[in-house]
Design brief:
The protein contains 2 helices and no strands. The chain is mainly alpha-helical and 67 residues long. The protein has one domain. The protein is rod-shaped, with a radius of gyration of 16 Å.
């Protein structure tokens, strides 16, 4: 379960970073921030997929253990 929590915390931090870059791009017109935001959004999608896999594996392990 620790892996799930660790991954979730990483996702939360990444969302905060993306939020800052999106605001820099939208409000101040910072093109580099827009590029970083798009790159990080792709990474976020991948990390979210990993979190789903971890969660499913954890559920299957608990079910197999009879919980």
């Amino acid at each position: 379960m620790s892996d799930i929590i660790d991954t979730w915390e990483q996702l939360r931090v990444m969302v905060e970073m993306i939020d800052l870059d999106i605001r820099k791009n939208a409000v101040k017109g910072n093109k580099s921030a827009g590029t970083r935001a798009r790159k990080d959004l792709r990474k976020l999608k991948s990390m979210a997929s990993d979190l789903v896999k971890l969660s499913l594996e954890s559920d299957k392990a608990r079910k197999a253990a009879g919980e």
